[in-house]
Amino acid sequence: CQECSLPFFWNVQRIWQEKNVNFKRQHHCRRCGRAVCGECSPHQSILPWYGFEYPVRVCKPCYQDIPEDELRSSTQTHNILIEPSCVDFDYSKKLMAVGASDNVIRLYDVA
Description:
This protein is of the alpha+beta class. Helix content is 15%, strand content 31%. It contains three helices and seven strands, in the order αββββααβββ. The chain has helices spanning 12-18, 60-65, 68-71; strands at residues 27-28, 35-36, 43-47, 52-58, 84-90, 95-100, 105-109. Strands 5-6-7 form a three-stranded antiparallel beta sheet, with no helix packed on it. Strands 1-2 form a two-stranded antiparallel ribbon. A two-stranded antiparallel ribbon has the order 3-4. It is elongated, with a radius of gyration of 22 Å. The model has no long low-confidence stretch (mean pLDDT 80).
């Protein structure tokens, strides 16, 4: 682990050399990319700045250092409880038109 220095389960040689049976599973912090064990990465956070709009694993130092602007989602979601039959975008007006099986056309502002 790049945080606590314990060997991962696949590093059999180091486990044998150190006679350490407290081996850990390897995970990666989605913010800094370091290889960390589960104890050193117990937190999850959304990271829209990095393309993660759902909670992902982050290490302890990254979790404490995430600035507020990195936590703001860059997307908006809308529940569409219909089955769309066609979708069209008007880029000049920033509108999305959705036609559905109920014969209703819905317009969504995508600005």
